[in-house]
């Protein structure tokens, strides 16, 4: 995978996150935090998990250590998550611009939240992050349907067709 492809998949990730955030932003706060019995109890908790994972991985790639998961309770409203997401997106943009082809193929060591040490090429880690976010966005779409809301189409093909 080369830099252009990584930038493309992260552009999709940003597009899908924004579309989902727009849909989530239409919810009443009670719906946003309602326990819907998924992997994470609520839409808020699921969105915070996506945000947290994207922040955590970026921090690893930037050489930061010791970061933990975000606490959903620290994000009581949609706006509190949206503001944090805007900041993260700017940080990703800076990182992607500075990325080199050589860096993508280099193995980068990291520790899981359980303290397990691993090493893997950067491009594989980066692809994992977008895949992880896609998985949890899908869960959020299901929760929106449980609330009788019309979720957006977040398929990669929809993104590519929009870009034509």
UniProtKB/TrEMBL annotation:
The terms under GO molecular function for this entry are: metal ion binding
Sorted alphabetically, the keyword list is:
Metal-binding
Q: Can you tell me which residues bind a divalent metal cation?
A: 49, 132, 136
Question: InterPro entries attached here?
Answer: DinB, DinB/YfiT-like
Per the similarity annotation, which family is this? Belongs to the DinB family.
State what protein this is by name.
Answer: DinB family protein
- Taxonomic classification, please? Bacteria, Bacillati, Bacillota, Clostridia, Eubacteriales
